[in-house]
Amino acid sequence: MKRIALSIGAVITLFLGNALWAQAAGTLLPMMDGKEIVAKVNDEPITLEEFNEALNALHGHGAMDDVKKTTKIDYEAPLTRLINTRLILLEAKNIGLDEMPIYQQRIEEFSRQGLGALLLENQTKDLKPDQKEVERIYKEEVKEYFVQSMKLEKEEQATKLAKEIESGQDFDAVITKAIADGTATGTVEAQYFKQTNMLPQIAQALAKMKTNDVSPVIPIQGGFVVMKLKGIRYPDDAQAKQRVEDSVLQGEKEAVKKNYIEALQKKYGKIDEDLLKSVDYEAKEPGLENMLQDKRPLCTIEGEAPITVGDIAEQLKKKFFHGVEQALGKGKVNQQKEDLLYKILTTRVLLKEALLQGIDKTDVFKNTVEEYKTSLLFGAFVEKVVLPDIHIDEKDIKQYYQENIASYSTPPMIRIQSLVFDDKTNAEKVQQKLKTGTDFKWLAANAEGQLDQKTEGLLKFEGKLLLMTTLPEDLQKVLAGSKDGDFEIYTDAKGHSYVLSIGDIIAPVPQELADVSDDIKEKVFKQKLQQSLDEWVDKLKKFYTVEIYIENLADLAK
Fold first, then answer.
1. Is 3.10.50.40 the CATH classification of the domain at 144-233?
2. Which residues of the chain have pLDDT under 50?
3. In this structure, what DSSP letter does residue 466 have?
4. Using an 8 Å Cβ cutoff, are 417 and 463 in contact?
5. Which residues, at least 6 apart from 463, have a Cβ–Cβ distance to it below 8 Å?
6. How do residues 230-253 score in pLDDT, each as one tens digit?
7. How far apart are CA 485 and CA 462, in angstroms?
């Protein structure tokens, strides 16, 4: 079912966003419930707002004025998608899929979770990252040390050199001599090293040093290091800065949410700590099964039903569904009781507060739930109605493999040497000489009119094996049908003419069907699913009325 959801997701997902188009001058659309509509399926309207959202989803989330300049806008596809989805949903409702208990349960659960999530989001929506904290972390993220270093194999050698430097000898002189006599490896010239790429012991030592300080002997794998810190820099890195800001903001949000939840727990809930401590869900008597009926309140919630011993027993049974008997008597079950209590309490108090604040009456909540209902009902139709008629056998897999053999083969390869000329006439003369047996290398050294190999934009072949698919499309057409030993002419968009000496050609090698059958099966499944949905849409159009209120959707963009 998860795979199916991925296949149909693009069809049923609606995106929230701002309207892209104003009503076109002179284009009057009918109104329903105070909103302009572009189409109607039976009595189900498709609003101008929905159309704009679907159009935005199809063409990205940037400014649509920019999209219009760079992209050919497909106005029909989003409306077709919306109409087809409406048809499927109408049929799903007519056959009662929306009345299934599991459907209602999932919507109720989603609504509870959604109310809590929106409540928490409201507490953090205006947060800004602490810039002092951002700057502190960012500097550590991008910090680079300017360091001279030498590595020695033996500790006594490193200690001896460190003492020489400590006694006043110049670091440059010591490292130069040590490298020259083979005692050490390294470079006299200082280099920049990013702190985050260093070994922990190296970074820790440098963090304690000031400019021109020399480190103690630092053991590393395969030897010992002595360093001199010459300086520190903090390069600009916009991506790193953004990562840090996002991380800091996320941390702040989590802290605010945690504190808010704890405040709500204290405001509405009261836990019986003694009872919670004493309840033994692993005891043989009365046993976990019998404890499901235990109504003793572990936590009272103002104005709500309490969380009982039985409620926690039920959650424990679900958590250890595949092995509760094995977990009993080992302490694993009782370890979970407090966490489960707070989890239930959190869900309850968030829901209570969200309802008190009227979040369930907001458009964003209603729209989110409607989108989920659409997705759930569409998925139920696919699962109950469409999938039972989809069958994939070995014949389907083999046929797809044969029809798409190029996609399951190694790409063809070709070896090319080239001479490049300033005009096609010179290239054709050289081509004829090559065909009559003149040596390629001799022509490379003596032919007139050749372009300098440093000329900007020239293709480089250099006698290497190249993937045919990486070559320009027009060049691939020139090479189609070529054989080892052929000489071809290719002229690029800049007017450069290449004489191509064709060498080895390696034909595509198909992968074994057994190695790609799983991938093919998934592709065939998606094809059959889409085909079946299209057939259902065609059937449903005969039973449900579809009305479109504007002939040229592009008029909405004027």
1. yes
2. 1-26, 61-70, 558
3. E
4. yes
5. 415, 416, 417, 503
6. 999 999 999 999 999 999 999 999
7. 16
> Which residues fall within 8 angstroms of residue 271, CB to CB, at 6 or more apart?
298, 299, 341, 345
Q: Is 13 helix (H, G, I), strand (E, B) or coil?
A: coil
Q: What is the pLDDT of residue 325?
A: 58
Residue type, 542: K
Do 1-126+366-409+517-558 and 144-233 have matching folds?
Answer: no
Question: 385 with 377: CB under 8 angstroms?
Answer: no
Q: Residue 133: is it exposed, middle or buried by C-beta count within 10 angstroms (0-12/13-18/19+)?
A: middle
Q: Which residue(s) pair with 150 in the sheet? A: 186, 226
Determine the Cα–Cα distance for residues 413 and 533; give it in Å rounded to an integer: 41
Record: fold of 1-126+366-409+517-558: Triger factor/SurA peptide-binding fold (1.10.4030)
Contact present, 282 and 333 (Cβ < 8 Å): yes
Q: What is 284-343 written as a DSSP string?
A: SSS-HHHHTT---EEEEETTEEEEEHHHHHHHHHHHTTTTHHHHTTTTTTGGGHHHHHHH
Give bridge partners of residue 147 from the DSSP assignment. 191, 229
Q: How wide is the angle at C-alpha 399 spanned by C-alphas 394 and 403, nearest 5°?
A: 150
CATH number listed for the domain at residues 411-506: 3.10.50.40
Domain residue spans in the chain? 1-126+366-409+517-558, 144-233, 272-356, 411-506
Alpha-helix runs per DSSP H in 125-199: 131-142, 155-166, 171-180
| The one-letter amino acid at 138 | Y
pLDDT of residue 9: 39
* Secondary structure percentages of the chain, helix, strand, coil, to 5: 55, 15, 30
Residue 116: predicted pLDDT: 97
pTM of the model: 0.70
What pLDDT, in 10s, does the model give residues 414-453?
999 999 998 899 999 999 999 999 999 999 999 999 998 8
Span between the terminal Cα atoms of the chain, in Å: 42
